[in-house]
TrEMBL record:
<dbReference type="GO" id="GO:0005737">
    <property type="term" value="C:cytoplasm"/>
</dbReference>
<dbReference type="InterPro" id="IPR018392">
    <property type="entry name" value="LysM"/>
</dbReference>
<feature type="domain" description="BON">
    <location>
        <begin position="38"/>
        <end position="108"/>
    </location>
</feature>
<dbReference type="Pfam" id="PF01476">
    <property type="entry name" value="LysM"/>
</dbReference>
<dbReference type="InterPro" id="IPR007055">
    <property type="entry name" value="BON_dom"/>
</dbReference>
<dbReference type="InterPro" id="IPR052196">
    <property type="entry name" value="Bact_Kbp"/>
</dbReference>
<dbReference type="Pfam" id="PF04972">
    <property type="entry name" value="BON"/>
</dbReference>
<keyword id="KW-0963">Cytoplasm</keyword>
<feature type="domain" description="LysM">
    <location>
        <begin position="115"/>
        <end position="164"/>
    </location>
</feature>
<dbReference type="InterPro" id="IPR036779">
    <property type="entry name" value="LysM_dom_sf"/>
</dbReference>
<protein>
    <recommendedName>
        <fullName>Potassium binding protein Kbp</fullName>
    </recommendedName>
</protein>
Length: 167
């Protein structure tokens, strides 16, 4: 998939953003490299724990975070395309993450990739389904495609990125 953009000020609050973003804002002499590495490692571990907490598994899952660019790099082999896309969304829908470098592969045969939709103020899953499929009642397809990250069709927020599976 490559590099995917997210809104850095929206999403799950998995780590103290000020600490993780500090390397980008601080002068080079202000923070020792070891401290920056520790902050990046802690953020990556928090994201990986969140992925595993969603019961999303991939062989060789490896998550790295670079606070200076607010980029997550994710590697591993997902069992299918849907799991790959959900893992990428778990990485990107985190406060303090602006980009995800998706370096994952898929073990199963080729499946069509989903498109992505960034939720705007006033959006509902029905409205998004109407735009994507021409049928507002298809909102459950989007909800199911974004489980377990979504627990209720009415609980989406501006800035959240959702997978929109092919029709």
């Amino acid at each position: 998939m490559g590099l995917i953009s997210f809104l850095q000020d929206a999403g799950e609050k998995l780590f103290h953003r000020g600490a993780a973003a500090a390397p980008a804002a601080a002068p080079a002499t202000a923070a020792p490299a070891a401290n920056v590495d520790q902050l990046n490692t802690a953020a990556a571990e928090a994201i990986e724990k969140y992925i595993r907490g969603q019961n999303l598994n991939a062989d060789g899952l490896d998550v790295a975070y670079d606070g200076s660019t607010q980029t997550v790099t994710v590697r591993g082999t997902a069992p299918d395309q849907a799991t790959r896309e959900k893992i990428v969304l778990c990485c990107g829908n985190v406060n303090g993450v602006a980009k995800v470098d998706d370096q994952m592969s898929v073990a199963a045969g080729a499946e069509p990739e989903s498109t992505y939709h960034t939720v705007k103020s006033g959006d509902t899953l029905s409205k998004i389904a109407k735009e994507a499929y021409g049928n507002a009642n298809a909102y459950m397809k989007i909800f199911e495609a974004n489980k377990p990250m979504l627990t209720d069709p009415d609980k989406i927020y501006p800035g959240q990125v959702l997978r929109i599976p092919p029709a």
